[in-house]
Every structure is written in C-alpha cells, then in structure tokens.
Amino acid sequence: MSAYAVGHLRAAAQHEDIFAYMERIQDTLDPFAGHFLVHGSEVEVLEGEWPGYLVVIGFPDLDKARAWYDSDAYREILPLRTRHITGDVVLADGVAPGYAAADTAARARQQAG
C-alpha cells in the first residue's frame, strides 16, 4: 500500500543550504522509489490556518518511507533544511484501492455499539 511523507514547512529566508538540500534530495529518494507529489506549494486554505508550504512525497509502502528518512544519505542533508526551516513532518499509510469512508464509519458505529 502506498505511503506518504508529508511536510508542513514554515516560510524561511532563502539560504545556500536550502538550495543545496533541494538539489540533493532526489538522489536520496531514488533508492526508495520516492517521488514528489507536491513540493513547496502554497495551499488554498479553506478551513483554519496554514502558515507555510506543503510537501508530499509518495513511496511504495511505509517501510520504504521510513528507510528513506532513516537513510545515511538523507540524514546527511537533513540539517541543511532543519537549520533554516521549521516545520512538521509525518509518515502515513495511504488507503487501499476501493477504500470507502462509509465502510469505515459502519465498522466504527458497530464497535461503538
């Protein structure tokens, strides 16, 4: 099942480290079949607040996503970003093909009894 690394990154001043991080990140993703789905896009806020930018990286599964984040290659470049940009990064499983929220609601309703 697909998995995703999702980053909510706050705006920061441009810095040479950020440029180097962006130039090098794809090489860290390739061994894990990671690919950008959203990269640094400003979002259209419909509810609440969202200061900053969105990054979404897709992986074949959660194990590959974790292995990428924990890889020596990514750990080497990570400080280039974290020294200059604050934010939140999470890993999450996607849903299986044919997923229906109504089915999940029915199971939850049954469990709630």
Tell me the distance between the termini.
30 Å
Could you say what the CATH architecture is? 2-Layer Sandwich
Q: Which structural class is indicated by helix and strand composition?
A: alpha+beta
Biggest sheet record? 4 strands, antiparallel
**Percent of residues in helical segments?**
40-55%
Q: What does the average pLDDT come to?
A: 95
How many discrete domains? 1
Report the radius of gyration as a whole number of Å. 17 Å
Sequence of strands across the biggest β-sheet = 2-3-1-4
Condensed summary:
It comes from Streptomyces agglomeratus. The protein is of the alpha+beta class and 113 residues long.
What does this structure look like?
The chain has helices spanning 16-29, 62-70, 72-82, 101-112, and strands at 3-9, 35-41, 53-59, 87-93. The chain is an alpha+beta fold. It has a 4-stranded antiparallel sheet. Helix 1 runs antiparallel to helix 3. The longest helix is centred in the N-terminal third of the chain and has 14 residues, at 16-29.
Tag the structure with descriptive keywords.
single chain, 113 residues, alpha+beta, Alpha-Beta Plaits, 4 strands, 41% helix
Topology readout:
Layout: E1 3-9, H1 16-29, E2 35-41, E3 53-59, H2 62-70, H3 72-82, E4 87-93, H4 101-112
Protein name: DUF1330 domain-containing protein
Domain DUF1330: 2-95
Pfam family, one: DUF1330
